[in-house]
Design goal:
- By secondary structure, the chain is α+β, with helices and mostly antiparallel strands.
- It has one domain.
- It is 49% helix and 24% strand.
- Strand 4 and strand 5 form a beta hairpin.
- Helix 2 packs antiparallel against helix 4 and helix 2 packs antiparallel against helix 6.
Length: 198
């Protein structure tokens, strides 16, 4: 008769070693993070340090955009429509902290089985400015986005289409200048084939 108890430890050891080996095999083939950009008619692939810098730049531009938009809003006590998302507990804490007027609340499920919400609400200009001025790049990074980092300002009566266009033009100019700096000064910038004109 086979004694399964004596076989259990060697089988578990083999499975554990196999699991560790599988992890390292999969990890070694994990694709490198990169970003392809086109500027001044030339295409580049940004990897390593350059990719980290463009990730930070994208977060910086999101914060800058909201500051420019808030600056356009009059009167000083206006209630600005925003949209944000996160885990229910964090969303509820945020709503209560800033006394938001919620206009919609869509329930969502985040992986793995975490209850969340996508909320549209109105917030006072001073409160929104306070939040945005204290945002860190980490708050806005896609991999670590917090509830405050997920905020976006919705189209509203306080910012005209021409003002929104001016904000976009200013951000575009700033972004291009900073991209040129990354290309000129960063490791991990490689020339690349232009794949399309969009």
């Amino acid at each position: 008769m086979i004694n399964y108890a004596t076989l259990a430890i060697p089988i578990m050891a083999v499975l554990a070693i196999g699991g560790v080996i599988s992890f390292f095999v999969v990890y070694s083939f994990y694709p490198e993070k990169h970003e392809n950009i086109k500027i001044d008619g030339k295409c580049y692939e940004l990897v390593d340090a350059a990719h980290e810098k463009i990730t930070a730049l994208n977060a910086e531009m999101k914060i800058k955009k909201m500051l420019l938009q808030i600056n356009k809003v009059e009167p000083p006590n206006a209630r600005i429509p925003i949209i944000f998302n996160g885990k229910d507990s964090e969303v509820n804490n945020f709503k209560n902290t800033y006394n938001l007027t919620v206009t919609s609340n869509q329930k969502v499920m985040y992986f793995p089985k975490i209850n969340g919400s996508v909320v549209t609400a109105d917030i006072t200009k001073p409160n929104l400015l306070k939040i945005v001025e204290h945002l860190s790049l980490f708050d806005v990074f896609p991999s670590s986005k917090s509830v405050v980092g997920s905020i976006d300002i919705q189209p509203n009566k306080y910012i005209s289409p021409s003002e929104e266009k001016n904000v976009s033009l200013e951000l575009d100019k700033l972004m291009k200048n900073k991209l040129r700096q990354i290309i000129d000064t960063s490791e991990g910038v490689e020339s690349a084939e232009c794949r399309n004109d969009t």
